[in-house]
Amino acid sequence: MSKAGGGPGSAPGPTAAAAAAAVQKQKSLLQKADADVSSLVDNFSSLINIARVNDPPVRNSQEAFQMEMRAARMVHSADSLLKLVSELKRTAIFSGLASLNENVDRRIEVLGQQAEGTERMLERIGQEAAASLKELEAHYYSSVVRSPSYD
Amino acid sequence: MIPQSQSSSLQRLQHVEKRIVRVLELAGAVMEELGNSHGPRTDAVSAHCREFMIAMKEIQTTLREEIKSACEYRPFEKCDYSARIANEICCKKLEYVIEKLDTMQQSLEHITDDV
Prior knowledge:
- Chain A: Keywords: Nucleus, Transcription, Transcription regulation.
- The complex is a heterodimer.
- Chain A is mainly α.
- Chain A has one domain.
- Chain A has helices spanning 14-50, 60-94, 97-141.
- Chain B is mostly helical.
């Protein structure tokens, strides 16, 4: 494998960079999810507080506007969460490890079958070679060209 | 057919989507109840708020789990390295045996020629 760049210091490998990117992405997504959930809960609480009937003097217009604003923020947060869920679903479909693991399992099975077949073939070859060697030895020691015996 | 783990993950996300829509409906129901001309029913408002908070907790928990599983970096949970190496070892064995058999063949041919 060729090494890019020279000098004493070496750049981090692709695995380390990918791991760091994954960690950063996870952190950002978690923060986004927590922020949206917190926004939903806070705006809902504020909405209920604003809806409380107050003693005069009342500020109906201002409170109505605040309620609309809170409701809009809730809808916005929910929409953001739905987009996050869509992204996660896309990730689950295209980057899911289940299908990849199935492919790896299938490949392992194929390789295992090939290795097993090869081992059986080698075993058979060994047995045939051993049988042939015994037959050859029998022929040799019963032939006239056998080495003379030393008495 | 979708694999089991992938289907389970998609189902959980689908359920979260429905829960998100549900929380908005609950918020609307609470506001409608508060705007009731006969006065809001306390038990209904309480039930809706409780369901809202339970749904939010479920949404947050599920999303955090799914985000962690989706962003967790690992090349493969399973690896075919051992199987590939075993296969390569078998190939080396075959090459060695073929070499020996060729040597035996040459020896036999040599002996036959001598005879």
